[in-house]
Amino acid sequence: MSRALSKESISMAKIVIIDDEPSILQLMTKLCEGMGHETHSFQTGAQGMKGIEQVNPEVLIVDLRIGDMNGLQIIEQCSQAYPNMDIIMVTGYGTVETAVEAMKLGAFDYLTKPFELDDLQRTINRALSSDATAPAQLTTSAQEELSTFRSALIGESPQIKEILEFVDKIADNDSPALIEGEFGSGKQTVARTIHNHSRRNDAPFKVLHCSSLPEDLLEMELFGGAGASTTRTIFQRAQGGTVLIEEINVMPLRLQSQLDAYLEGINEQRLRGALPGQLDCRIIASSNEPLEAWVKDGRFREDLYYRISVIPITVPPLRQRKDDIPLLIDHFLDNYTKLTDTKKKEVDKYSAELMGNYKWPGNVDELQNAIERACALSDGNKIRPVDLPPKITQKIEISDDENEKLRHQLPIGTTLSDYIKKQERIFIRETLKYNEGSREKTASMLGVSIATLYRKMGLKLERDKMLGVSSSS
Fold this sequence. Notes:
globular, Rossmann fold, Helicase, Ruva Protein, domain 3
């Protein structure tokens, strides 16, 4: 069933966006304009406050950290001066705690960076919709322009194909799912893919980062708190959609007990057909470590484990699906191109080989960061090994003792003898160039015999004599 409303069911609104990152500001502006809203964008808090006064918008989207002002100050001032304006906070992953505090000040909702543009669209429409259901769609042109950023599982490996086939089978099953895998392996992407393939795909997808919130705020997000502004739990804000409880393994035991009781009550109401609409959402949990081992160690409640693991999914690390690396690289290059509005860069064969051989302990997230870094540092339109993080090229950077600005890269993992031999050959080659190819002059300058010079160059003196080559040539 589709929960999408017709475009006419939500009137076009005036929206003010305040964010000091030009690329993010441009993307959010493009999305809002694509939805048909009158959009006003500002890069500073001072400009934004003047814009709010002039425009009197229905919705304000504000970043938590702006150069000249704190987003919380703006929220506090605006929630008092403009009580009918809905405020959406945008924040970095590491500042979720402060974003939850913003809810206490009157924010309608918050999104953590990096967020899906679909999520922003749904949040805006819920703020504008009287019944808080999922909304109108983007125009066709806007959908095409922003489709690069939609969440999707990228890969053709057998492991990814198996997960995609499994997702198709369970997408519309409302039973709780548990996704396990290493940090950065793509657990959230799998959860989003389940949501996007389900009948709930027009409703919100909300992520609760258990590792980012202290216990009291985590409890507030799960079960609400005192005061009108804190009673809307994450389950209520995800009405009709999906809630991902990310890294549930770090949830305190006390809250595990409460969550188990809460989910049991929800399940009973659903079976009786008495579940309130605002609590109708699918629950997906993720863990960066196998939860069964945590249960045996007493670090995770057994009853909660069985309740959330009705549908288990394991996401393989990137090192076990190396065939997907080229596809992921191309996907991240497309994303960077769209984000920066620049020409798509190419990866030379040496860089591709290095990335293909690297173990990727940080998995897909590490690969994405490496591509973004390489795109930012590369000269011209091609990514070369020097543009990649040193750990991928198996080198470390050191500074010259006499010149701190002069940097060298050393190949970590190479044996000392191999490194010395390589450096000798480079030095001999450059000295030969200086002496215009004369091996006698080169040997004399280096203080070695002709025989030693030939040996270090990997040549045989007898072979040159047989070929009639002079040692001075």
